[in-house]
Amino acid sequence: MPKNEALTSPWIYFAGPLFTAGEMIFNQKLADGLRSNGYKIYLPQEECAGTKDPRQLYEICMQGLQEASMVLIILDGTDADSGSCFEMGYGVGIGLPIVGVRTDFRGSGEHLGVNLMLTNSCTHLILTQMSPAPDHAASNIPNSAPTKPAVTILEVGTDPLATLLNIFATLPAAQAAR
After folding, report:
1. pTM tops 0.85, yes or no
2. What angle is formed at CA 121 by the lines to CA 118 and CA 124, rounded to 5 degrees?
3. Are 146 and 139 contacting, i.e. CB atoms less than 8 angstroms apart?
């Protein structure tokens, strides 16, 4: 059972790095924005607060994933957080839709500036870029399926909340978490 007893499944599992104050503040702000728009969010930094035992931390996160309708993953950093990538892979393995968000404009991978295993696991991908992207940025990449992932480009400094709300409005899995 989640720490927040009012939280009932299914929910959106929020996978993201949570090791710095900045990361935790970003996660909390985005989760709060989604909640204020009616979405149930399972945020591991809340659910695991005060827990020190590594096995218990793992089990809390696994429960969150197993009862989720989808995964929202933050893909920031020179390489996306390994724990978040595991959570994403687990979600893909059990058939959950994945929405990836990268607010970091530094490209660090071989496909759309992100590791190709991550981009191709996403149902939808929100990317931040320094300069405007061509209209067909995703389809100009070799071996890119035309519909997966759907890609939205944001300008540097843009809050991804409004874009997420637009995407979630079209995803049945997100609507199940209301």
Report:
1. yes
2. 100
3. yes
* Structure-block tokens of residue 13: 């599992």
Taking only the tens place, the pLDDT of each residue in 105-145 is 887 777 887 888 999 999 999 998 876 555 444 444 444 44
Element (H, E) at 34: helix 21-35
Dihedral sign computed on CA atoms, order 89, 90, 92, 93: positive
Residues 6+ apart with CB under 8 A from 134: 140
**Quick check: 17 and 73 in contact, CB under 8 A?**
no
Beta-carbon contacts of 165 under 8 Å, excluding residues fewer than 6 positions away, are 34, 37
Q: Which of 17, 11, 119, 19 is nearest to 74 (CA)?
A: 17
Which of these, 124, 82, 129, lies nearest to 101 by C-alpha position?
Answer: 124
Q: Which two tokens stand for residue 164?
A: 């997420």
**Bond preceding residue 17 cis, omega within 30 of 0:** no
Residue 121's nearest CA partner among 171, 68, 73 is 73
Query: Rounded to whole angstroms, what are the CA distances from 85 to 25, 29, 46, 63, 142?
Result: 20, 21, 19, 16, 23
Kindly report the number of other CB atoms within 10 A of residue 50's CB atom: 5
Beta bridge partners of 42: 13
**Alpha carbons 4 and 20: distance in angstroms, whole number:** 23
